[in-house]
């Protein structure tokens, strides 16, 4: 088997870091391209799919990618494009899995699909200018999982809340992305931390989540051990054309395999 590498790719608006053995990287890249084509095709024939912030079921769906986005958005009560980063990451990981990958991840700007056969550390950075951050100590996974983030204060994503960060772990990154958006939407003040997970506790595939507002934290479900780590801005997955100082502190995550 070839060496494990971390490859950074940019395809139009998509910026991703792919971690896997070298021979699996092209499979992920081709899957990212294919997913983008499916999404662009849907947008061309149905502009509302792009703009709506509520669940939406188009009369004509162009692919399974679009179906998955709409299904997750319905569960979370958000628009289908709220799942786009996680959906692309999930499709890329599944393409590597189909080719035989047993240890790897795709980080699409902080929305991550993972399959791990050894422990890993995943940083969640939510405080620009800080030298440290908190991280999740991940164990090996049975199959794949998704870990996605949203924020009302940082980054480019639309949020109706004011959360420092919301992190969701789910059985895939499509659902995790939708739920992270929905949880962050519900946090506008510290009191909201008490109820931000209430609507999603019974959602099938939702493993666990964390929401933070001005340093106060709420958790739900099963989460890995949380530790403090040194922040490494150089390991963020950031688009070269979008890397403003504000964005560098956004909902980015770092995964280190074997630490």
| Second-tier CATH architecture | Roll
| Percent helix range | 25-40%
**Name of the CATH homologous superfamily:** ApbE-like domains
Rounded mean pLDDT is 87
Kindly name the structural category: alpha+beta
Low-confidence stretches: 243-259
How many E-type strands? Answer: 12
**Largest beta sheet, briefly?**
8 strands, antiparallel
**SS summary, helix count:** 5
Shape category: globular
Terminal Cα span: 21 Å
What is the helix/strand order? EEHHHHEEEEEEHEEEE
The domain count comes to 1
Radius of gyration: 17 Å
Widest sheet: strand ordering: 1-2-3-4-7-8-9-10
Beta strand %: 25-35%
CATH level 1 class label: Alpha Beta
Query: Within the CATH hierarchy, at the fold level, what is the topology?
Result: T-fold
Oligomer category: single chain
Q: How would you sum up this structure, described in words?
A:
The chain is an alpha+beta fold. The chain has one domain: T-fold, CATH 3.10.520. Helix content is 26%, strand content 30%. It is built from 5 helices and 12 strands. The protein has an 8-stranded antiparallel beta sheet with strand order 1-2-3-4-7-8-9-10. A 4-stranded antiparallel beta sheet has the order 11-6-5-12, with no helix packed on it. Strand 9 (206-213) and strand 10 (216-221) form a beta hairpin. The radius of gyration is 17 Å and the shape is globular.
Which key terms come to mind for this protein?
259 residues; alpha+beta; T-fold; 8-stranded antiparallel β-sheet; 4-stranded antiparallel β-sheet; 5 helices; 26% helix; 30% strand; disordered C terminus
In short:
The protein is an alpha+beta fold.
